[in-house]
Amino acid sequence: MDEAVRVDGDETATGRNGLRTRAGEANEERILDAALDAFASRGFHGARIDAIAAAAGLSKPNLLYYFKTKDALYLAVLRRTLELWLEPLRELDEGRDPRAALAAYVARKLAYSRDMPAASKLFALEILQGAPLLGRVLDGPLKLLVDEKTAILRGWIAAGRLAPVDPHTLIFAIWATTQHYADFSSQVAAVTGRTLADEGFFEETRAGLVRLLLDGAMPHG
Length: 221
What we know:
Number of domains: 2
Shape: globular
Oligomer: single chain
Strand order of the largest sheet: 1-2
């Protein structure tokens, strides 16, 4: 008989012998997609499990088989968002040209703001509330990855390949400016009359952010 297991605070469903089936994984993704839309538009307290299940094309008991509680589902959505956002940072390789590597990172982060604005808004809301559910992840995997990448930036600085900027400040600036276009998309649209869905505006924004963020980070003279 299938059973539910708990991993790092998450309760998710697995099949016999702990193996997840393809159908089960597809169901989980549909649930997470529906939950993201619900939590981002209605907040944690306003989102209803039965409505999320219906949007995912499942019954409420089926949803609760995969995610036993609303907290577990909410945390799973946040974890998936963070995992997607960390993927480009993992690709920051000390063997690459610093400007090319950082420019690629800016572009990937901006693309996420264009393609997944709801995820960015939900994540920002969690952080503004003091990260009550995601705090352990931020203090653990996120910090370890950022520590690893700031060490690369310090190596570039020591080698004269990057100006003596504070590595954390540079990373935070990239996060803040790229995610602004998701978290404050209504304001961006109101002021400019454009969105990142406009390919020309996306490219102008990408190029502008690269100049703004990286020109001062490159060695001079």
